[in-house]
Design a protein that fits this description.
mainly beta; Jelly Rolls; 2 domains; 7-stranded antiparallel beta sheet; about 5% helix
Length: about 500
């Protein structure tokens, strides 16, 4: 196992940072048109590309509100953006128009204008305090990010007001990074957006959501924490599983010709856990280094002194049931069994996890965050992170899911003869966190952890412990077994 893991972890650091998108404004001379396309014969500027209006505040200060794109450019605004902004990944709205600071967008300013045709990310100035009703509705957006506030620059620093349905109708829109803004939301702001929408705030900011069931708040730490960050419940969570099936991963070729890493689900398949751990250039591809150490309070000693060869081809004399076998890369041929008298109640499994993507500590203070979409998805792996469940990477790994394969799942007979776990008490950093109520099934069981509740910074170790609280007895043996116990995280993926 260690040999296999090190090979995967040695793959070079890779990643892609999505940044912003935006536009600029108008009023002024109209360009000539031909065949439905704009011919840019005259000088194109921010001032004549967008419509905007100048208003006067209560203290006599002037500010600009963007009303939308000049009608003359709407049919071919993409070409206009290319002319104005010589940047492949980042388009930004101007900070000033008509000599006044741009502070917001009028109602329906960009409604039904496919901004995603140009770039699917939107970057907004920290000066913005108002986004009108339906402003970015049905624009093809994927994510939105507010700029960092730069000391010494103009910044009204007021409450950011977002009107009703301001970002509605963008089915791929999944995240907004507000940094430390105070936000007031209207109704149905993210209606018709991704299945899960993340509102990201800096730690210590007053977090607010929209009241929509698919919208979640996420805290982005502004510092490097040398210890894991855990939000403990008043009483341990009671978690129930979602039962899925085995699949053909890295052990697939040894079972059936042509099944290696097809990720096809099947009762007879050898692998479990998370397909992205097995997919070529998947979970570990961008990882610089990582750790997954598994220990147990006891293990059953094999009477056969020669032992069996493990999944990595090495022999483990007398240790057929060692805790390392709980790593999903071993498949279901191997298992852990407790080694005390009785049925193993009170015995425990420990997992130490850490990851590193070479995220530099100073980046935390700079407030950097990457919006990354999980790329590993196909018809055989519907539960992988796809465009509606992306990664939010700020240097902290978020632990999101537990996979347990109960009993000794080598085959149905072996599974029935040995004891299985009925309930586990999960500890995080030696404090009770959740009860896992397991079903008596041979198939893999998945427990979802609360969003943003358990996370650790780059290279920081986090300690999990699972204590057996109750068991299902076997038909022949008193020993209680587990085939797999895997803790999944959300962070950088492969390239």
């Amino acid at each position: 196992m260690k040999k296999k893991m090190s090979k995967m972890l040695a793959i070079a650091f890779a990643g892609a940072m999505l940044i912003g998108v935006v536009c600029v404004l108008c009023s002024g001379e109209e360009p000539s048109l031909a065949a439905g396309n704009v011919i840019f014969e005259k000088v194109l500027t921010e001032e004549n590309f967008y419509d905007y209006e100048i208003r006067t505040g209560e203290h006599g200060e002037q500010y600009a509100l963007i009303k939308g794109i000049n009608e003359a450019y709407r049919a071919d605004f993409g070409e206009g953006l290319k002319r104005l902004v010589d940047e492949r990944w980042k388009i930004t709205f101007p900070k000033r128009l008509g000599g006044a600071v741009v502070t917001g967008f009028c109602d329906h300013a960009f409604r039904n204008i496919p901004l995603g045709d140009c770039n699917q990310s939107l970057e907004l100035s920290s000066n913005i305090t108002y986004i009108g009703e339906g402003c970015f509705e049905n624009c093809g957006l994927v994510d939105v990010m507010f700029e960092k506030e730069v000391e010494g620059t103009e910044n009204p620093a007021g409450v950011l007001t977002i009107g009703d349905g301001a970002f509605a109708g963008n089915p791929q829109l999944w995240g907004i990074y507000f940094r430390d803004r105070e936000v007031s939301f209207g109704r149905n702001v993210f209606a018709g957006c991704a299945q899960r929408v993340y509102l990201c705030y800096r730690k210590g900011t007053s977090k607010k959501d929209t009241g929509e069931s698919h919208v979640f708040t996420v805290e982005i730490p502004a510092y490097y924490s040398p210890v894991p960050l855990v939000d403990y419940p008043e009483n341990p969570y009671l978690l129930k599983p979602e039962v899925r099936n085995f699949f053909y991963g890295e052990n697939g070729e040894s079972v059936e010709e042509g099944k290696f890493c097809t990720l096809e689900y099947d009762d007879k398949a050898p692998d479990y856990g998370f397909p992205e751990w097995h997919a070529p250039c998947g979970e570990f591809c961008a990882m610089a280094e990582g750790k997954c150490d598994i220990t147990a309070s006891s293990e059953l000693q094999d009477s056969d002194a020669s032992g069996d060869a493990g999944a990595d081809g090495y022999s483990y004399p007398g240790r057929r049931y060692e805790p390392d076998h709980l790593n999903s890369l071993y498949g279901r041929e191997y298992a852990w069994a407790e080694g005390v008298d009785g049925n193993g109640i009170g015995e425990s499994i420990g997992i130490i996890s850490s990851c590193s993507y070479q995220y530099q500590r100073e980046w935390y203070e700079e407030g950097d965050v990457s919006f990354l979409e999980g790329y590993v998805s196909d018809e055989f792996s519907p539960n992988l992170y796809a465009k509606d469940t992306p990664d939010i990477y700020d240097g902290y790994m978020r632990y999101t899911e537990i996979c347990v394969v109960n009993g000794y799942a080598k085959n149905q007979k072996t599974w029935e003869e040995n004891g299985r776990v009925k309930r586990l008490l999960m500890y995080v950093e030696d404090k009770p966190f959740a009860y896992l109520e397991l079903e008596d099934t041979i198939k893999p069981q998945y427990f979802t952890l609360p969003v943003d509740a358990v996370k650790a910074a780059d290279k920081v170790e986090i300690h999990f412990r699972f204590v057996i609280e109750d068991v299902y007895p076997g038909t022949k043996y008193e020993d209680t077994c587990l085939t797999g116990l895997v803790v999944e995280y959300m962070g950088r993926r492969g390239h």
